[in-house]
Amino acid sequence: MAEHGGDANAAAHARRSRLYDYAEPTVSEREESGAAKASGTPAADAVERGRRAFAVLLGEFRRTAVLVPLDAEDGSPLTADFGGVRWFYAFSDEPALARFALARGEGGREWPYQRWLGARLLDAAVPATGVVCGVALDCADGAGGTLFPPVRGVVPDTVAVDAGGETGDER
User: How far apart are CA 87 and CA 85, in angstroms?
Assistant: First the structure.
């Protein structure tokens, strides 16, 4: 059953997440937006630059070993739920993890972590959770942090919230 109650026409009117604009568009979406790109409008150009920049960042993240802090109680990767999405915490280096610990008021304790490739987080850990899940990189760094949302082109299509042609915010 679809999020919009099963009405096939309602999907076209469903509100899209802003994160959807950063996901790799499908062939049909590229064809539909071809007129906007051909016009060279500043808005269309800015969206295209944003997509390219995100694709470069995503590729770099997938190839890089990041620090994944472990839960002190059970040794599982540390996660948080926010906005209906579970987020794996990941950090680019030990200083970024230390800033996170200090921001939580837990700078005095030891923080065990493992090094994982970003691709392992996105391709294996995210699907293994069984819930809508993404990765939050360097989340204590404000604008310096990055979210890798659970959308096509970032996580496997089988767990992407926008897979199957639906455009809603939830699956």
Answer: 6
